[in-house]
Specification:
Blueprint (H helix, E strand, L loop, with lengths): L2 H11 L3 H23 L2 H17 L10 H19 L29 H18 L4 H12 L4 H8 L3 H26 L1
């Protein structure tokens, strides 16, 4: 943790809203992406983010500098996602809404390296399929895959977020990937 971040945290702990806002803005994007991957729809992800930021503001005095501030924030976001999922267990499905480039463009004599509409559809279907497979593995395994393979956190960061050892993280990640691979290919074979 750098000196400026420490000063911002101290000011925020004393009630300086500007300092709190600066801290939150530095990790808001990644926090939202984590919530979106967990909740699989924008509305629930937004609710998780809002709830998380309220918790962070209320409990900022409990931040003890044992980890980076953003790691602490991501842990709260993950916990809030898990809380909301538990509350909504009676809901059968979480809707994942992805808005990509769906408009059609006029033909222009410029080489376009962007994906074709067919490629966009295939990617969306593939991502949706992978996410549905991800829903079929356990919560702790899903969490590890989202944090490592989708969000790109390091093992040390995941260790701090999940409060598990790096060895446990690596072990869970290996098991999670194997389970996901098995589910993925079993379902592909059934659909062919």
């Amino acid at each position: 943790m750098d000196f400026q971040e420490k000063i911002l945290i101290e000011k925020a702990k004393k009630g300086d809203e500007g300092s709190f806002e600066t801290l939150i803005l530095s990790c808001k994007g990644k926090a939202y992406n984590i919530a979106l991957r967990y909740m699989r729809n924008e509305e629930d992800a937004g609710e998780v983010l809002q709830e998380s930021f309220i918790k962070i503001f209320r409990h900022l005095d409990k931040f003890n500098y044992n980890s980076r501030f953003d790691t602490w924030v991501y842990r709260i976001v993950v916990n809030t996602c898990n809380d909301l999922i538990r509350k909504n267990l009676n809901r059968k499905e979480f809707n994942f809404h992805y808005e990509g480039d769906e408009g059609y463009e006029d033909e222009i004599p410029i080489v376009d390296s962007s994906p074709t509409p067919e490629e966009v559809v295939i990617r969306k279907e593939n991502m949706s399929y992978v996410m549905s497979c991800l829903d079929k593995i356990g919560k702790e395994h899903k969490e590890i895959i989202i944090l490592r393979d989708i969000q790109g956190f390091s093992y040390d960061e995941i260790s701090q977020i999940t409060e598990c050892t790096v060895g446990t993280i690596k072990s869970r990640l290996n098991r999670a990937r194997n389970k996901l691979r098995k589910i993925y290919f079993e379902n592909v074979e059934l659909n062919e």
